[in-house]
Amino acid sequence: MIRDLAQRLLDELHTQLPGTDQLIPKRELHVALQAALARLDLVTREEFDAQTAVLLRTRQKLEALEQELARLEQ
């Protein structure tokens, strides 16, 4: 992911600013992007999907408990 992002950014820089291939080596850009992304609080798509599934199950259980409580209160 980071490698692809670094390559796309580097390609865009070279397109917009010709001659920057000597100024910004690919490896340094990759390291800089990795450091910047490491400071962000990011999760992978798999982690996000897993937490979404947990939230869905929790919501379903809560709704079932609310219905049961309403039934018991009557």
Task: Describe the SSE topology.
Elements: H1 2-16, H2 26-39, H3 45-73
Helix pairs in contact: 1-2
Task: Give a description of the structure.
- The chain is mainly α and 74 residues long.
- The protein has three helices and no strands.
- It has two domains: 1-42, no CATH class; 43-74.
- Helix content is 78%, strand content 0%.
- The longest helix has 29 residues, at 45-73.
- It starts with a helix and ends with a helix.
- The model has no long low-confidence stretch (mean pLDDT 84).
Condensed summary:
With 74 residues, the chain is mainly alpha-helical. The chain folds into 2 domains: 1-42, no CATH class; 43-74.
Q: How many domains, in number, for the residues?
A: 2
Q: How much strand content do the residues show? A: under 5%
How would a textbook summarize the main sheet? none
The secondary-structure class comes to mainly alpha
Q: What's the count of strands?
A: 0
Considering DSSP H and I runs of 4 or more, what fraction of the residues is helical? over 70%
Shape: rod-shaped
Radius of gyration, whole Å: 24 Å
Q: Total helix count?
A: 3
**How far apart lie the N and C ends?**
55 Å
Order of helices and strands: HHH
**pLDDT averaged residue by residue:** 84
Low-confidence stretches: none
